[in-house]
Write a structure and sequence with these properties.
- This protein is α+β, with helices and mostly antiparallel strands.
- It has one domain (about 5-470).
- Helix content is about 30%, strand content about 20%.
- About 55% of the residues are buried.
C-alpha cells in the first residue's frame, strides 16, 4: 500500500459584423489543462494504439471514450456515440473490483506516500505486473489539500479527502459518497513528467481556426448575407465547408496522453454549453447565446472564454514541511478579440459585459458540474496534480525530504504513460438564435493552466504545521512505510 486513512479531529471569437448583424464565434482558444477511466495490461498492445512494457496500467480496458468525447480514425474530436459510451461503461463495470478494507470508508484525510508510490510503480514495471486499483486511483483521493514533508522518513506525502470508488453513470471512476471523480495515477505521473515544460512555457492545448478558413468564411458571408437574410441557418453547410476544421495544437505535454484528452474534453463540453448545442445537466445555466438574445445591443460578439486555475495563496509552515492547497480550483475568464486582415486574432484587453456574466455564471456552476458532467471534476483534479508537481519542484521538496522521485519526476522519469489516439482537429459547429438586431451564430471555448504562476504565491502560516501530526503515529513497520 502507499496510502493511509486518518480522520480529522479538529473561440477564439470570430465575428463578421455586417449589415444584417450576423456574428459568428468559432471554437478556439488556449487550452491547458480530469480523468476518465482507462487502463491496459502491462506489456500489452497499448490503449488504442499505444503501449509498451513500461505503461502504468491495470485492467486491460480499451476505451475510446474520455470525458464524453472520442477521436475518429481521421483524428477528429467528436461527441462519443451512444454505442461507444455504452460499451465503455460496460467494460468498466465488468472489470472494476472496487475498494477493500479501510478503503471502503470515506475519510477526511487519506495520506499517499510518494516514496512508496515510486517503489510500487517501479516494481510493477520490473516484474511486468499490473498495478492495483488502490494505486491506480490513489486510494480514492478526490482532491489534494496538503503536501507534507517528512525528512526523517525521506518521504513526501499527499493528503486530501477520499472515498470508496465506483463507476459513475458516464463511466468515470467517482467517489461513492460525493460522485466526484477520484484522482488518477496516470495524470499525476504526466504532471510530474511535464513539470519542467510547465515551468518554461506552460502546458497548453489550443484549438485554432486556420487563417485561410477565417478569410474564406468572411468572404462567404459578405457574398451571401442578402440572399440568406431570413434564414441564415440555410447557409450553415457552406459556412462549415468554407471555415474548415479547427486545428488542435499541443505544447508541453504528450499529445497522446490521457491528460491531453481530458483537457480537450472539458473545453469541448464548455463550448457545447455556451453554443446551446447541448443542455447542461444543472439548473440555472443558460447558454451564452440565450443570454445574448435578451440584449438590445449585442456589440461585436468577439469574446473568447477559457477555464483557468483558481487557488488561494499556498500556505506553508515556517519550516516548509507542511503545505496547504486551497481554492475552488477552476474559474472561467473572458476577453474580447479582434480579427486582423490576415485572418489571425489579437486580444483587446477588454471584457464584454454579457460574456463576463456568462463566464461568472459558469464558474459558479463548476462545482455542481463536477458531479454531473464529471470531466470538469477531472479537470480540477488535474489542476491539483499540476500544482503539486510544480510545488515539489519549485520548493525543492525532494532535497528537503531526501526523497528521490527521479524515476517518476521530470525528464528522468522511466514510466511510460498510457496512450490514446492523438486528436488533430474539430469540425466546426454552428448554433443560431435571433436577437433584436439579427442572427447570432456562435461557438467558444478554452482552458489554461499556469501551475508555476500559482505556486509563486506563497503565504506563511504556522498553523498549517499542526496537520503534520496526522502522520506521526504511523507505524514504520506498516506496509505504508516499508
Amino acid at each position: 500500500m502507499v496510502f493511509r486513512s486518518l480522520s480529522k479531529h479538529g473561440s477564439m471569437a470570430y465575428c463578421a459584423r455586417l449589415k444584417l448583424s450576423i456574428g459568428l464565434i468559432v471554437a478556439a482558444g488556449t487550452l491547458g489543462f480530469g480523468t476518465h477511466v482507462y487502463a491496459q495490461n502491462n506489456g500489452g498492445g497499448g490503449n488504442n494504439g499505444g503501449g509498451g512494457n513500461n505503461n502504468v496500467n491495470g485492467f486491460g480496458i480499451q476505451t475510446r471514450v474520455v470525458g464524453g468525447v472520442s477521436i475518429r480514425p481521421d483524428g477528429v474530436l467528436q461527441t462519443a456515440t451512444e454505442v461507444e459510451q455504452t460499451q465503455a461503461l460496460a467494460d468498466m463495470r465488468a472489470r472494476l473490483v472496487g475498494p477493500k478494507g479501510e478503503l471502503n470508508q470515506a475519510t477526511d484525510r487519506r495520506l499517499i506516500s510518494l516514496k512508496n508510490l515510486k517503489k510500487v510503480v517501479l516494481a510493477s514495471i520490473e516484474q511486468n505486473q499490473p498495478l492495483s486499483e488502490e494505486v491506480l486511483y490513489l486510494g480514492g483521493l478526490t482532491r489534494v489539500e496538503n503536501v507534507f514533508v517528512y525528512p526523517e522518513r525521506q518521504d513526501i506525502v499527499l493528503s486530501g479527502p477520499a472515498e470508496p470508488w465506483k463507476i459513475g453513470a458516464n463511466g468515470t471512476v467517482v467517489g461513492a459518497k460525493s460522485g466526484r471523480p477520484v484522482l488518477n495515477l496516470d495524470d499525476l505521473l504526466c504532471a510530474f513528467r511535464t513539470v519542467q515544460d510547465a515551468r518554461k512555457s506552460g502546458i497548453s492545448v489550443s484549438i485554432e481556426p486556420t487563417k485561410e478558413g477565417v478569410m474564406k468564411l468572411e468572404q462567404l458571408l459578405k457574398r451571401s448575407l442578402q440572399s440568406y437574410s431570413n434564414n441564415p441557418k440555410a447557409l450553415e453547410p457552406n459556412m462549415v465547408e468554407a471555415f474548415g476544421p479547427q486545428q488542435i495544437k499541443l505544447d508541453g505535454l504528450p499529445a497522446d496522453s490521457h491528460m491531453a484528452r481530458v483537457i480537450l474534453a472539458a473545453d469541448y463540453r464548455m463550448k457545447l454549453y455556451g453554443m446551446n448545442l447541448a443542455k447542461p445537466p444543472v439548473a440555472g445555466l443558460p447558454s451564452y447565446i440565450e443570454m445574448v438574445s435578451q440584449q438590445s445591443n449585442v456589440g461585436q460578439l468577439q469574446s473568447r472564454w477559457w477555464m483557468a486555475c483558481d487557488y488561494s495563496a499556498i500556505e506553508h509552515s515556517k519550516d516548509r514541511l507542511a503545505w496547504k492547497i486551497s481554492g475552488q480550483g477552476i474559474k472561467t475568464l473572458t476577453e474580447e478579440e479582434q480579427i486582423v486582415a490576415d485572418g489571425s486574432f489579437k486580444q483587446s484587453g477588454k471584457v464584454d459585459r454579457v460574456a463576463k456574466k456568462w463566464a461568472d455564471l459558469f464558474t459558479k456552476k463548476l462545482d455542481e458540474l463536477a458531479t454531473k458532467d464529471t470531466v470538469f471534476g477531472d479537470l480540477r483534479n488535474v489542476m491539483d496534480m499540476c500544482i503539486v508537481a510544480a510545488l515539489i519542484e519549485s520548493q525543492e521538496l525532494q532535497s528537503l525530504s531526501q526523497c528521490d522521485l527521479s524515476g517518476l519526476m521530470g525528464k528522468t522519469a522511466n514510466v511510460e504513460l498510457a496512450k490514446f489516439e492523438v486528436p488533430a482537429s474539430i469540425d466546426p459547429q454552428c448554433s443560431f438564435i435571433q436577437t433584436v438586431q439579427g442572427w447570432v451564430v456562435t461557438a467558444s471555448g478554452g482552458v489554461m493552466v499556469d501551475s508555476w504562476q500559482i505556486v509563486s504565491h506563497l503565504k506563511a502560516n504556522d498553523a498549517v504545521a499542526s496537520a503534520l501530526s496526522f502522520g506521526a503515529t504511523w507505524n514504520k513497520a506498516d506496509s505504508v512505510w516499508q
